[in-house]
């Protein structure tokens, strides 16, 4: 009886090892892609919030758009019974809307929402 591994056992072990290495490399690639997506989403949300905060504090209620390397933030006044300002962040890199929300100034919120005065509206 011979001791050691046969050639078939060695090839099978190498194939299994290679599959494990390729799976690990694929997971690293997916992790990098998800981290980039999360960074773009966070940047979009923060920029949209910054734009909404500065427009809430100003007296101007016009519409506009600001472009960035990752996408754009656009805003416009809403013309329904609630009023306020609609802010949308869209990523051209991802081809997706990152955040869309409505913001009210404290005086508008008290008038439009029957005495309640939230600084920001819920996602719509």
Explain what this protein looks like in three dimensions.
- This protein is of the alpha+beta class and 124 residues long.
- The protein has one domain (7-123).
- It has two helices and five strands; from the N terminus they run αββββαβ.
- It has helices at residues 7-57, 106-112; strands at residues 64-67, 71-77, 85-91, 96-103, 120-123.
- Strands 1-2-3-4-5 form a five-stranded antiparallel sheet, with helices on one face.
- The longest helix is centred in the first third of the chain and has 51 residues, at 7-57.
Task: Give the SSE map.
Layout: H1 7-57, E1 64-67, E2 71-77, E3 85-91, E4 96-103, H2 106-112, E5 120-123
Antiparallel strand pairs: 1-2, 2-3, 3-4, 4-5
Summarize the structure.
By secondary structure, the protein is of the alpha+beta class. The protein is built from two helices and five strands.
How far is it from the N-terminal to the C-terminal residue, by CA?
A: 75 Å
List segments where confidence is low: pLDDT < 50 over at least 5 consecutive residues.
111-124
Order of helices and strands: HEEEEHE
Report on the biggest sheet.
5 strands, antiparallel
Widest sheet, order of strands: 1-2-3-4-5
Strand content range: 15-25%
The geometry reads as rod-shaped
- Count every helix, treating DSSP H or I runs of 4 or more residues as helices: 2
Total strands: the figure is 5
Provide the structure class. Answer: alpha+beta
**Backbone CA Rg:** 26 Å
Q: What helical percentage do the residues reach?
A: 40-55%
Oligomer: single chain
Number of domains: 1
Mean of all residue-level pLDDT scores: 82
């Amino acid at each position: 009886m011979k001791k050691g591994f046969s050639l078939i056992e060695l090839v099978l072990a190498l194939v299994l090892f290679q599959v494990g290495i390729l799976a690990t490399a694929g997971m690293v690639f997916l992790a990098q892609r998800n981290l980039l997506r999360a960074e773009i989403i966070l940047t979009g949300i923060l920029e949209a919030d910054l734009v909404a905060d500065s427009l809430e504090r100003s007296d101007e209620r016009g519409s506009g758009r600001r472009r960035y390397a990752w996408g754009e933030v656009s805003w416009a006044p809403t013309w329904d019974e609630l009023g306020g300002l609609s802010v949308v962040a869209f990523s051209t890199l991802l081809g997706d809307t990152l955040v869309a929300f409505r913001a009210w100034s404290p005086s508008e919120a008290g008038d439009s929402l029957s005495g309640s005065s939230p600084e920001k509206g819920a996602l719509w």
